[in-house]
Amino acid sequence: MSSSYFNYTNSPCAACKFLRRKCTSDCVFAPYFPPEEPTKFANVHRIFGASNVSKILQEVAPHQREDAVNSLAYEAEARLRDPVYGCVGAISVLQRQVLGLQRELEETNADIMRYASYLGGETASVYGDRRG
Amino acid sequence: MSQIKTIHNPIGSIERFLDLLLISLIVYMTLKGGTSGACAACKYQRRRCAADCPLAPYFPAEQPKLFQNVHRLFGVRSIVKILENLDEVQRPEAMKSIIFQSYVRDRNPVHGCLGITQQLQYMIWVAEEELKAVNSQLQLYRNGQNHPNPHNMMIHEIGEKQEDLTSQLDLGMGLPVNTNQGNNTIPFFSPVSETQQLQQPQHMSYCSEVNNNHDYNPTPESCKEVLNNHNNTSLAWGQSQFPYNHHHNYGFMNQNEHCSETKNNNSVMAIQSQLVNLQMASNQQEEEVDVHNYDEIHQFLEIIDESQSFTETKEVYASSSGESSKEPIDEIGEKELRRAATCFSLTSVN
């Protein structure tokens, strides 16, 4: 990213290339859409639109813009792959995994409780024998 | 004078006519808004809502914020284009996911749904680590049944480790973040108070999507793994290192962002915890996960619909439900661990 930041004066950023406009020194997209990744901007533009992305970047603090762009790129790609559910499909999958794991944990903990009570009973009987 | 009177009368009648016209127009608009009503989309765009407005079924007039969020992220043209390429059956589902995505982006403008994905990946990692520890504990118990005395010591040692894990989880220390800049990061759903700073362990194993990766790395790359598994297609630009973590800690918020993100975290967690509770209550036995099973994703979206409130009191919703519903997810894991740890200390009799 840092190399593209310094190179944007040499070649237009992916956004300006896509939009066929001059990439100025104050281009808001240049730091985040390097010319080596044309698909990134193409996806984002196709789903969200350049003006929306620009507005989102303006609303976000400068040190957070890279994260914002990356998350938008992720969501755009997800939406292109799955026009119905987009990234929400992946969230649903993960949610199911979490639930499955939590269920498994409960069952395993229940087993441990059973063993613990069994061993506790054994220990108590040992104590009883020793005292007796 | 009589001429003046005759002049004034037509003007007066015109005024009266205009008044009547205005009143009827107002009545008409009121009636239109009261009965069929312009949808939120058309209201926002200040245009007439046609009978065949494609967005009207999804954006009721009484929930303007829904459309505002969607408009801010996607834009009208994009939504219409998405809808046009889908079947009638798929359109409601697509709109639900778009509305959800926009809502999440509104609450978390920086990370959006990617933040939730990473949060869930972290939860999976934590659950897997717990499961590993608990399974090893269980194995010891099973072995201890056959050979009770030598293993009591081992159980005691494992119990201590379990207590360490419990105390780590208590303090939210389960996040193995490599701090490039030495900043402390706080996981989304740490049970501790929000201002507590934590020292993170450096290396933990992560046995979920990326099996060979021994450093926990909830980057968008690992999220892209989920997309890969979800769709079985290769990524468009997966060859280059995703720049997400270039200057930041892995995945989660920097401390600088923490305070501003707290409410967002709470609301996202509120949604998630409600989802967990609702799904656990209603979920059937699912042996295999079919990632292309739209019925299950549909169920997920139905639950989102029921649990989300898009009224103007959403802040109240977030603040009131955030703390109380933050409890369930954490309580499930913590209570079980504490119970298990207590058992170990009780049973470690010498």
Tell me the domain tally of chain A: 2
Determine the mean pLDDT of chain A.
Answer: 86
Encode the helix/strand succession of chain B as letters.
HHHHHHHHHHH
Measured by DSSP, the beta-strand proportion of chain A falls in under 5%
State the total count of DSSP E strands of chain B: 0
- Give the biggest sheet of chain A: none
% residues in beta strands of chain B? under 5%
* Poorly predicted parts of chain A: 1-8
Counting DSSP H or I runs of 4 or more residues, the number of helices of chain B is 11
- DSSP helical segment count of chain A: 6
What Rg of chain A do the Cα atoms give? 28 Å
Distance between the termini of chain B: 121 Å
Radius of gyration of chain B: 29 Å
Terminal-residue CA separation of chain A? 77 Å
* Classification by helices and strands of chain A: mainly alpha
Short overview:
Chain A: This is LOB domain-containing protein 25. The complex is a heterodimer of chains A (132) and B (350). With 132 residues, chain A is mainly alpha-helical.
